[in-house]
Amino acid sequence: MTLAKRLHAVDRGAFAAHLVALSGEDRRLRFGRALSDAALRDYVARIDFERDAVFGFAADELSLGGAAHLAIVDGVAELGVSVLAAYRRRGVASALFQRASDFARSRFVATLFLRCLAENAAMLRIARKSGMKIVTAGGEADAHLHLPPPGVIGAGTEACR
Which class is domain 5-160? Predict the structure, then answer.
């Protein structure tokens, strides 16, 4: 089983290093355009780790093989996932997606949202598998999933992670 651990502000450097390690094509698929190293570091610097949630899959003690950023605003959580090439096809992205979805649900977020390029087959496969409604237009895909409120056990389990 692949474990996705919640990261905190002290892990900001590891998250930035993970994003910088992505290839240009992977950056394009994750963000819709190939961002520079400086732009990625700036993106990470602006994350509010108290409001949002960032999850990581540890490649080793010092680096992340995969990561997910869940930006939460007004009852909607937008999810972005990235996995380094060496860790793909091992369930890392699915585990990150599930961990983020569980977290959002435990915070009573009503909608999980994902935007990616329409050619991002891996993310769209995960979105379909999770039951997200997907609309594709203009080369982009928007996916939405209504999250039911957590049960007492579900909310308590997430709070313990």
Answer: alpha beta
